[in-house]
Design a protein that fits this description.
three-stranded antiparallel sheet; 6 strands
């Protein structure tokens, strides 16, 4: 998981294969997110709301 949101209004997060560093696709969220993806372990990650009052926990759909 990598982010390309440093100066973008709309952060973009991407799946990257850690073995080959090949781009696997962009993450589509059900609502706007803010900041970089941060590791939450076991294939999960979290984002923090723009006002930093809410933490959103994410993971891949089962089987991905």
């Amino acid at each position: 998981m990598v982010g390309t949101e440093y100066s973008a209004e709309d952060p973009r997060h991407w799946f990257v294969d850690p073995h080959t560093m090949a781009l696997r696709g962009r993450i589509a969220y059900p609502f706007p997110v803010s900041g970089p993806p941060r590791s939450a372990g076991q294939g999960a990650w979290y984002t923090v709301s723009k006002d930093q009052t809410t933490l959103h926990l994410w993971d891949l759909p089962h089987g991905e």
